[in-house]
Design goal:
6-stranded mixed β-sheet, 7 helices, 7-stranded mixed β-sheet, globular, FAD/NAD(P)-binding domain, 33% strand
């Protein structure tokens, strides 16, 4: 059986682990690498974790899933020195009450082994699906791929909605938009992560001080949710300038460089009515973080549920 999986994030990796014995899996990813929002941007002598900075695990199955990666240390707990910053306000220390995990040396490093043994087509943007059950074709900007017995989408919800628009895909979710600013600076604060009491800046993370990183002068600036929602349609140059100025003011320093990244679907605010979507007669399915509000954990739970539903479809 040939199965096409669209997207190469955590949901896709979970599908690979659970469905590999069913047949041949081919993964299609529109970006340059795997990981989805577990993303690391590489620069010249610099790197930034510009997507999800970390994640938590509360589901017992997810905790068990993570154990091999914690053991081989491609995944580890993050114990940053944390503070709270605000203009004309005295900083104070913060703490976490449950483990927060990061991949090392990059956020997606621990996911890569899950794709091993499967064909992964990167920089392949799937535009549409056509055909029939057992004989599906995927059309990308570069050509046609197939045929496939099954097509599963773990892509962002808006892309999945477009791909399955003709197949009664009726799930919706509401996302929070986000902006991150990838900076380099010579200033070296005493903290690793700062939660900001500011109208524009939500938090500051010294990316180079995270486990396994070796670029000490790199900083990631995350924008406040409300401000990001208001600015999502604004000119990127204006957003970048405003976010940069606000962060530099908070730190009382000037950045050597700064580059903006926009996430239209940064995090789920209102999840879909179901954790996954399956049409056994059509041999189509979908999963993603849209099934919950816990980010990485929700993506895992959604893919696990889809794989179980496929196994029980008969």
């Amino acid at each position: 059986m040939n199965i096409a999986i669209i997207g190469a994030g955590l949901s896709s990796a979970t599908l690979c682990q659970n469905l590999g014995a069913l047949g041949t899996l081919t993964i299609f990813e529109k970006s340059r690498g795997m990981g989805g929002r577990m993303a690391t941007r590489q620069g010249v002598d610099a790197a930034w974790d510009h997507g999800a900075p970390c994640f938590i695990a509360r589901d017992s199955g997810f905790k068990q899933f993570l154990q091999p990666f914690l053991k081989d240390q491609t995944l580890t707990e993050w114990h940053p020195k944390m503070t709270t910053l605000g203009l004309n306000q005295k900083p104070y220390k913060r703490t976490w009450f449950e483990p927060h995990y990061v991949g090392q040396p990059t956020m997606n490093q621990w996911l890569k082994p899950l794709f091993a043994g499967h064909a992964v087509e990167t920089q392949c943007d799937i535009q549409s699906i056509y055909g029939a059950p057992g004989k599906w074709y995927l059309a990308s900007v570069d050509g046609v791929h197939g045929p496939f017995d099954w097509v599963l989408s773990s892509a962002p919800l808006t892309q999945t909605q477009a791909l399955f628009a003709d197949f009664n895909f009726d799930l919706t979710a509401r996302y929070q938009a986000g902006f991150t600013l990838l900076c380099q600076m010579t200033f070296s604060p005493s903290w690793d992560r700062a939660v900001c009491q500011d109208a524009v800046v939500a938090e500051l993370i010294l990316s180079g001080r995270r486990p396994g990183r070796h670029h000490p002068n790199t900083l990631v600036v995350h924008a406040q949710d409300q401000w990001a929602s208001e600015q999502i349609a604004s000119e990127p140059a204006m957003v970048e300038q405003t976010l940069r100025r606000a962060a530099e003011t908070l730190l009382n320093t000037d950045f050597d460089s700064a580059k903006l990244h926009r996430w239209r679907d940064a995090s789920v605010i209102e999840p879909a009515a179901s954790t996954h979507w399956l049409q056994p007669t059509l041999q189509l399915g979908a999963c993603g973080d849209w099934g919950g509000t816990q980010g990485a954990e929700s993506a895992f739970i959604s893919a696990r549920a889809l794989a179980a539903a496929m196994a029980n479809k008969g």
